[in-house]
Amino acid sequence: MPATRSGRVRIDAPVRAFGLRASYRLSCGHLGEAVSLASAIAREQTVEAPPGVGGDRLQARMLGRIERIEPSHGEGWLARIAYPLDATTTELTQVLNVAYGNVSLMDGVRLVGLEPAPAVLRSLPGPRFGITGIRSLVNAPARPLVSAAIKPIGLSSGGLAHQAAAFARAGVDVVKDDHGLAVQGSAPFAERTRVIAEAVAGANAAVGGHTAYFPNVTGPLDTLEERLERVVALGLGGVVLCPGLMGLDALRCVAAGPRALAVMAHPAHAQTAPGRAQGVAPDVLLGTLYRVAGADIVVYVNAGGRFSWPEETCHAVNRRLREPMVPLRRALPAPAGGVNAAEAGHWFARYGPDTMLLIGGSLLVQRDLEGAARRLVEAAVRQEEGNR
Amino acid sequence: MPATRSGRVRIDAPVRAFGLRASYRLSCGHLGEAVSLASAIAREQTVEAPPGVGGDRLQARMLGRIERIEPSHGEGWLARIAYPLDATTTELTQVLNVAYGNVSLMDGVRLVGLEPAPAVLRSLPGPRFGITGIRSLVNAPARPLVSAAIKPIGLSSGGLAHQAAAFARAGVDVVKDDHGLAVQGSAPFAERTRVIAEAVAGANAAVGGHTAYFPNVTGPLDTLEERLERVVALGLGGVVLCPGLMGLDALRCVAAGPRALAVMAHPAHAQTAPGRAQGVAPDVLLGTLYRVAGADIVVYVNAGGRFSWPEETCHAVNRRLREPMVPLRRALPAPAGGVNAAEAGHWFARYGPDTMLLIGGSLLVQRDLEGAARRLVEAAVRQEEGNR
Known about the structure:
5-stranded mixed β-sheet, homodimer, 4-stranded parallel β-sheet
């Protein structure tokens, strides 16, 4: 697809049945380079062979089509490519491969937008619970939600349960395992989940609460079924899972599987950050892809915490998780990563009630854990009252 | 771990039992910043909580220890951190999480070295076949090896089998599915693998050859077992799998599983490239991690092809795959990505005989596919004769 003599970009003939539209930011100086690179991507991600191989008609059917190339706010170019459903299929691994497979090994090609076709969206689970389902689970129909992490690794199951019970008595909506809690001898999975589930259930019974406990099931793929089974046996409603560590398809398997468990997706090893010239943009990975794969809640790095993500990136992730995407449910953004509990009200106001603020360290350093968590919950309740 | 008054870095007390040593390149100007960042990493990747949480003794046991900080050839600093086995455990997902979990969301932190402890190496499979095993499989005890890709997507099973048979008659060692061959209706998995396996077996019988056919099993995790079963039922010796798309642990599952299949790991969506300020360096990901997880053959981007990786990166990957790593077997580097068949001899000479050159497009564009492949095999044989 060379530029025409007039210097304008000739747009390829439309794809008859597309599987996905992907938008890339290309770090190129000139339009001509951007056109060449976009053409190379459209080929690399599909037929991955020189012109003629397999026949011209076959290639015309399988190649990605460049739909648009335009300047990207002074930094290179934005190219939108539509890929045929014949190439992408509706399998998540192949959708990901076509969107950002081999080009992930190139420099200056960043995936900044992803629009799966209706046929793909119908084949993938999306959130099983979604925002409404999570609200039902924790009996909080309208206010902002709060989650607290129990940690650190190395603490005994009893020590973690002590934290969890305090959070539950305070009315925290979701108590979650730290994503690093794996099979450490200090708190092995089976023991830890049982002891903490009992502690949370006891606290709920004592105060008439609805706190949910989500164990971390990130671990070997061949133990996932067993761990999920145990979570269900304990009567728990959800799990924490790191798609970056287990593969995005592991998230899909849980979301599409037979057990009605909510999934909180955690971004460890997600390898995404704003402002890079390559990789998958945070809103596309944590917003679009995690939601499509089935996350009900998506943990990401909040502005002003330990990581230096700007607030606009957070808003972009929120938007992807909550925007209409028929037939998928909306997912709940969970800003985290060093959020100060004292600033909860500020973030609730910024992000709106359909947000779950996830806090760990700034609660755990406080002497009165239950009191600190209660103030956090009260901030969420005040926010709802303020909105009435 | 602040710098001492003299400006030198005080080294933390050694870890008693370490799980892994990770080296990071930090994009910092001053030593003081590098020390602060390294300390932040050592905390983020382990206890992920402020000092005091869980108790000082617990934190002292779980925190990563900075072993060394030194200038990195004028570009920032190199920091080596040892993480306790108590934190890493021997599970691959948690090893990856501690090595490059949350810090993958930061800027200016690149994983450039990884040394798993003997306890971790003993728990992970490493290559089941290794270089020696692959050589036995294809009956080529000493010469450089050659692999050819069949493609493009959209071609029928019969069309792909036609290519595979030509490659087998020419004596190509491994015929592999293109990594994009998934469940496209043009060549669905069950049909495709059966038809191609028969074609390769027929060609082998006709010429007395030993060509192996490796189908691509990249796809939904919950279909992996079924696909592997089918590969075994067809009498095939190995598979192609993309750890970037399925998760690194999917590779481990195949390598550690009950079926004696060799694994060729393909880097689609691996999101690695030389010269970046973040991410996992190619030699660490494709060399160390893919090998530890169980790849027998690792496909990567060769210099001079469609991607712009320098030759030194290729040598670095080769080195990681072949260096001693007790008790793991050595794995076979498979440079690919636009290698010109006419330059095969050059690359064999550069990389040595323990290399599998993977070629697709530059064979497939040639009218006489079998003749082109035969010339490639002859180049490998000549290389061996030259080495005698």
